[in-house]
Design a protein that fits this description.
Length: 258
């Protein structure tokens, strides 16, 4: 029986998905991709889960695709055709995804980082879009990375494949914050607790809002659309519960008990 490469656990409304394949730097092997995909679906469908934390064992978060498996494979057989589903499940998850990085990410691993809503990395973590250096194109991950980082940074880093540190990753918008290793878990926990305070449906709708097409600026049509969305949530069961809880100086029903 093959040992699992992705672990799943739930504590206080937070589902932790842990990549555990340190022997190949948590590379995206067929088994790991399959288990990661299933774990993301499991977290999405679990009503007891409010926030998803994506983390890892070993010194590397994710080294990208497993090149040993890709060597000699025909087009479509290297996992390229299924990796988009993993990125889409992270990006479009109705539940916020927090990525916890205690080490480097490369190529497809950086794509997963970009797909997450909140990313906390240790200062020692490094990143690289290394695809061009092995003669391939960072095509799939561009869909999650390009909306996050500045255009000039994308030009530089996609074309050169240069390694960059966590401080630069934060400056260009790839990650949320870079912290000392001793502060990593506290910073992740801080975000998890803050996210758990939001209404589940409100968080899902806000994620859709953030991922949707940007309006060129304030317009009559834009205000009408956003007003309809806002009014619907004010009148919703979740919205009314939140308003009532505020008036009664108590926590809303969706906040996990401590």
């Amino acid at each position: 029986m093959t040992d699992e490469l992705v672990h799943y656990s739930v504590t206080n409304g937070a589902a932790t998905i842990t990549l555990d394949s340190p022997h190949n730097r948590n590379a995206l092997s067929a088994q790991l991709r399959r288990e990661l995909r299933d774990s993301l679906l499991r977290a999405r469908d679990d009503d007891g889960v409010r926030v998803i934390v994506l983390t890892h064992t070993g010194p590397v978060f994710c080294a990208g695709m497993d090149l040993k498996e890709a060597r000699g494979a025909e087009a479509g057989a290297q996992g390229v055709n299924e990796f988009p589903e993993i990125l889409e499940r992270i990006w479009a998850s109705p539940k916020p995804v927090v990525a916890r990085l205690a080490g480097p990410a490369r190529a497809g691993g950086v794509g997963m980082v970009a797909a997450a809503d909140i990313v906390v990395a240790v200062r020692e973590a490094t990143f690289a879009f290394s695809e061009v250096r092995i003669g391939v194109v960072p095509a799939v991950i561009s869909l999650t990375v390009l909306p996050r980082i500045t255009p000039r940074a994308a030009q530089e880093l996609f074309l050169t494949g240069n390694v960059f540190d966590a401080e630069k990753a934060a400056r260009i918008g790839l990650i949320t914050s870079a912290v000392d290793a001793a502060e990593l878990d506290d910073e992740v926990d801080r975000y998890v607790r803050a996210l758990a305070l939001g209404g589940p449906r409100a968080l899902a709708a806000t994620k859709e809002l953030l991922a949707g097409p940007r309006h060129a600026g304030p317009s009559k049509e834009g205000f009408a659309e956003m007003n309809e969305l806002s009014a619907g949530f004010f009148a919703s069961e979740e919205g009314q519960e939140g308003i009532t809880a505020f008036a009664q100086k108590r926590k809303p029903s969706w906040v996990p008990a401590e």
